[in-house]
Amino acid sequence: MVSDSKRRIEVAAAGLLARHGYHGFGLKKLSEAAGLPYGSIYHHFPGGKEEIAVSAITGTGVLVGRMIRQAPGDVFGTAATLFDFMAAKLADTGWTDGCPVGTPALDGGSDVEAVRAACVSAFEAMAHGFAEMLTELGMAPGEARELATTVVAAYEGATILARVRRTDEPLHTVSSAMARLIRLSLAEAAAAEANSP
Q1: How far apart, in whole angstroms, are the C-alpha atoms of residue 13 and residue 8?
Q2: Which residues in the chain come in under a pLDDT of 70?
Q3: Is 196 exposed, middle or buried (0-12, 13-18, 19+ CB in 10 A)?
Q4: CATH (domain of 139)
Q5: How far is the C-alpha of 125 from the C-alpha of 188, rounded, in Å?
Q6: Are 154 and 148 in contact, with CB atoms under 8 Å apart?
Q7: How far apart are CA 25 and CA 78, in angstroms?
Q8: What span, in angstroms and rounded, lies between the C-alpha atoms of 166 and 149?
Q9: For residue 149, which of 174, 129, 164, 170 has the smallest C-alpha distance?
């Protein structure tokens, strides 16, 4: 069972990582954001900043992947919700808070191996959630993984464009494009299944 204080640290860290990346957030800012004494952070995370970042990034990937997998089979609604969530988040934060996985992946992901590995794991969890849903809808596993990777990559790219342009237009544009791609891919999978001996 994760303690309330530890959970507060992870949530605050995810927020700071989304805004500042790995190199841009410090433990003093984290202590303030979590509303906990500085010493409490090392009590829960003796490995310091790196351990906290890995925990927050991994936790984000697991949470999003689980949310995707638990959606009631509506891959279109699930994908749209993901893009809409980020559009609202960016607008609400003045275009400063991106993805708690994508932002540190760009800032620190290649410098610190544990952070890079956590980003890989988080992206995989997100893609796996979509791939499972697509497989359940009749797509071959390999094609489902490719399409799921495409959706996650498009989401992250649209998030970056929206953040730097300070408009949610890229997220809505890419969301619509992903819906068309998913629909076409599912139709092709159904046609291939119908034509198979």
Answers
A1: 8
A2: 1-2, 72-73, 108-109, 197
A3: exposed
A4: 1.10.357.10
A5: 25
A6: no
A7: 31
A8: 25
A9: 129
pLDDT at 1: 46
Instruction: Give me the number of domains the chain comprises.
Output: 1
Q: Which residue has the tokens 């494009």?
A: 177
Structure tokens at 148: 């799921």
| Token pair of 73 as six digits | 């089979």
Structure tokens at 74: 């509506």
pLDDT at res. 194: 81
- Those residues whose C-beta lies under 8 Å from the C-beta of residue 36, and which sit 6 or more positions away, are 5, 8, 9
Q: So what's the pLDDT on residue 2?
A: 54
What Å distances lie between residue 196 and 12, 77, 141, CA to CA? 51, 29, 16
Domain of 119 in residue numbering reads as 4-195
CB 55 within 8 A of CB 12: no
Amino acid at 81: T
